[in-house]
């Protein structure tokens, strides 16, 4: 397939997914047909079926792309004090979830409708492993935490469900959630 053809196929696929994303809030997952999706996307019904053999596949792709879109972009932990890197990471996660709270809830709803894995991670495991490695090399990881356990615990702390739980009960501001996460992180690190 030529590069131009590949770009056209990719653009058509994206247009169909964008149309499905527009239809979903008003119609729900069962409220639109592939015909309506084709009309909304401005393509033939056969074109929709060329890219997605069923509405379930469209919804699965939407759920998957929503999860990918909620990942926090990062340059990697900055050099310097690992405790500062941990604090900065927790602050960035709180800002990220606050800014993307509606999108995270919508993506979780979509995942529930499709049976896909709900989005909840803002950070990838490699980023967390880097932070934990720096904490270990700086002597800041408590002895009873293995690196894998610390990565998992930080992943839970940085997850949307944790943010949502801390934000809602009792009602806390994003800054208060950040402070709570810092308190929880102290159980992992030795100051």
Total number of strands: 0
| Cα end-to-end separation | 57 Å
Largest sheet data: none
Write the element-wise H/E pattern from the N-terminal end onward: HHHHHHHHHH
Helices, by number, come to 10
Mean pLDDT across all residues, rounded? 85
Radius of gyration: 21 Å
- Quickly count the domains: 2
Residue runs with pLDDT of under 50 for 5 or more positions: none
Described by its quaternary structure, the protein is single chain
Derived structural class: mainly alpha
Please state roughly what percent of the residues sit in beta strands, choosing from under 5%, 5-15%, 15-25%, 25-35%, 35-45% or over 45%: under 5%
What share of residues is helical? 55-70%
Shape: elongated
Describe the SSE topology.
Elements: H1 3-27, H2 34-41, H3 45-51, H4 55-69, H5 82-99, H6 101-114, H7 125-137, H8 147-157, H9 160-168, H10 174-185
Helix pairs in contact: 1-2, 2-3, 4-6, 5-7, 5-10, 7-8
Structural write-up:
By secondary structure, the protein is mainly alpha-helical. It folds into two domains: 3-53, Arc Repressor Mutant, subunit A (Orthogonal Bundle); 82-185, no CATH class. 69% of the residues lie in helices and 0% in strands. The chain contains ten helices and no strands.
């Amino acid at each position: 397939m030529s590069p131009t053809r590949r770009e056209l196929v990719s653009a058509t696929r994206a247009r169909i997914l964008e149309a499905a994303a527009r239809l979903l809030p008003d119609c729900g997952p069962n409220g639109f047909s592939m015909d309506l999706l084709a009309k909304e996307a401005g393509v033939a019904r056969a074109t929709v079926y060329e890219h997605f053999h069923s509405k379930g596949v469209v919804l699965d792709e939407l759920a998957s792309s929503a999860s990918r879109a909620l990942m926090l972009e990062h340059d990697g932990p900055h050099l310097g004090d690992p405790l500062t890197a941990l604090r900065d990471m927790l602050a960035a996660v709180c800002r990220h979830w606050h800014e993307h709270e509606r999108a995270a809830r919508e993506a979780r709803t979509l995942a529930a409708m499709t049976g896909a894995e709900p989005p909840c991670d803002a950070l990838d495991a490699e980023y967390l492993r880097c932070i934990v490695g720096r904490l270990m090399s700086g002597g800041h990881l408590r002895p009873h935490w293995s690196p894998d356990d610390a990565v998992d615990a930080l992943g839970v702390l940085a997850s949307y469900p944790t943010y949502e739980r801390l934000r809602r009960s009792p009602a806390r501001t994003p800054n208060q959630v950040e402070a709570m996460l810092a308190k929880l992180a102290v159980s992992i690190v030795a100051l």
